[in-house]
Structures are given as structure tokens and as C-alpha cells.
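Here is one chain, start to finish.
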Amino acid sequence: MDKVKAYVSGPGVVIFSKSTCCLSYTVTFLFQELGVNPSVHEIDRDPDYREIERALIRLGCSTAVPAVFIDGKLIGSTNEVMSRHLNGSLLPMLRPYQAQS
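Its structure:
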């Protein structure tokens, strides 16, 4: 749990993913297309993989990955992110982190 809290404490967009998860890839790609460069942590490459997975579930993630945090707040997994994107509430949350063009 401490490792997860350390990753998400502070400003920014953090995505916990697995290197082989197509939904993690899709969510990460969405953020990149919206001009955001999220910090992506592939938990399956971490020696504490199982502990991180359990911590994400305890924090309220419906599935361990993808798990998206913005400014330390859990946004959710694929369903929650896509719902926010479709209803227009995701973009305002991302404005501070969008690359300037």
C-alpha cells in the first residue's frame, strides 16, 4: 500500500497497468491522444506485483489494472475513465497536464 501511495502522492496523472493488458494500453493511449503524458507503472514488472495489485483493489479499483489516479485521487478503471471522457468531465481534469501546442 505504501508503494502505491508513494506513486500517486502529488500532482499528475498516474496509470497502473500490466504490460500485456489491452485495456491498460487503450487507456494510456487515450491520455496520450488528449495531450497528456501520464506516469505509467507496469505492475507486472515490479517485484512487489501482488502487493500492489491487492493495494489497488483495497483502494477501490474495480479491477487492479488499469487504475488511473489524477492528483492523487482515484478516478477508476477503464469504465470510469471512458464514462468521464464521453460525458465531458475528464478533459477539464486533464487541462493542467496537457502539452502546450
